[in-house]
Amino acid sequence: MAEMVKLYIDGKEVEVDKDATILDAAKKVGVHIPTLCYHADLSPTGACGVCVVEIEGSPTPKRSCCTPVAPGMKVTSNSKYLREIRKALVQLILSNHDVTCPTCPANEHCELQSLANYLGVDTDGLPTVLEKKPIDETSIAIVRDPNKCILCGRCVNVCNDIQTVSALTIADRGFDATIDTFFSLGMGNSACVNCGQCTVFCPTGALSERSEIDLVWDALLDPDKVVVVQEAPSIRATLGEEFGMEIGTVTVGKMYAAMRRLGFDVIFDTNFAADLTIMEEANELVERIKNGGALPLITSCSPGWIKFMETFFPDLAKYVSTCKSPQQMFGALVKTYFAKESGIDPSKIVSVSIMPCTAKKFEARRPEMRDSGYQDVDYVLTTRELVRMLKAADIDLKTLPDEKPDELMGMYTGAATIFGATGGVMEAAVRTAYWMLTGKDLPNLDIEAVRGMAGIKEAELDINGMKVKVAVAHGLGNARTLLTKVKEQIEKTGQSEYAFIEIMACPGGCVGGGGQPKGSTFAMRARRGEGLYKEDRELPYRKSHENPAIIRLYDKFLGKQGSELAHRLLHTHYFKRSNLDGACVEAVTEKHVHH
Ligand code: SF4
Ligand code: SF4
Ligand code: SF4
User: Tens of pLDDT along 181-195?
Assistant: First the structure.
């Protein structure tokens, strides 16, 4: 049993593990200590000093996020003196800060703004020492504004320790300290994989997605364009949070209604394409198992993971599924299948996607993603951007009625909806691969072993007496650990113990994506995932191969799974990239078109 320590915070007795910090103890007893650089899922740095407390017998205040508890300790969390220190610290930060809240991407979601507000910091007449630095706009996905950086170090921590990409460092010391990239070339010329985790963890507007809001407004207001929208599986589980609904509430009907109110002409759903991805990917898995193809098959729907693979594990590219992500399968079909069925000239279609993800912006602009003859997905908005548009248009999601999507590419199954949570793609693919291999339905559709927030999950499945071992990793550090093991196994024995692996770049999967609401903790991500599992249980169809709209798509347009047309529109190939500047070095797989 853990050794416990008893102490007092503002006179309240509390007992905690001996390794806990004062901040942990305060949380346990419901005492709010203001923080700024601290984040529950990162190791504390104590950089900002805002969380200072007084300890009886100690001559100076201590930072509660990194001061361990001690038996009998008497802590004061709030006093006039502490409030003055905190105020002075925040004033100091703001005097070296580009305070432009109304137009800032973090407005109303900024921890510095709410702390200044909480402490009653007066910015009027505050002297400024800010020497404006250039904004880094080199990346397709992420914008870095050093003038809004408070040097908390969270981005470096998440990029190095959780994602193991190490695209960011703290350069220089003291007053000149700044967050920087490789040779100051900018994020677009670094190993950054666009996962956007730094933008979720950044407490201010210093890191944000590259906004496409204006481009989407222009399209919506253009009478000559037909603007088609798709929403990723996880959006339905996170949008509600921003409108005061409980975390994990699935708001799919209201989401469609909101899209109509914004002016989108055709409302479809990425979930339709998630079912399609499963049809193609399960087919690929079954073919590889039957024909002795490259195993393990590794999933390909997370574009942050794909760039990570191309940068750090290019020799595993042949194991990665050739399937495009649901976003891109959808994009290729909008300007072909939908254009044909609706009789609309594809050059008039603007294809917009709502994604939990900043890497999707990069993915949509990969030169390979033009198989329809046009850029398949024109604009990608993150959940955060969509929320900004809805609020600007005075649309309150909570008050909207439940509406339905448009038919052709709007219908989906429970298998598609769980794509948004770590393990979901694996579970969805197994439901269909089992049916393909045995002609029967999987006896228990819920594969609990691949659910939840454990970094690496494994399961052994029995398919007609054949043992199939599968693994799931989320967060790129976990992916690195799993794939290093897989690589060693293949080098040593010529094969891996796994037949199928799911990788998601972001901790928690897409519900924790880099385009989701700022400031989420891993615990919140788990609750969002629960919302998706609940929707799966309640849907009439739970297996992708049962989706009537997908059956129709194959009948009317694609032919069969893995057909030549399916390969041309729905599959892709990969490159090797430099781990210094992220540039393509060479193609490492080819796109196969079957005849
Ligand atoms: S980072 Fe925060 S405090 Fe700074 S301008 Fe943006 S909203 Fe305001
Ligand atoms: S987007 Fe991801 S890879 Fe790029 S700097 Fe941020 S955390 Fe690192
Ligand atoms: S960019 Fe954001 S997360 Fe990184 S150090 Fe600055 S304020 Fe912190």
Answer: 988 999 999 999 999
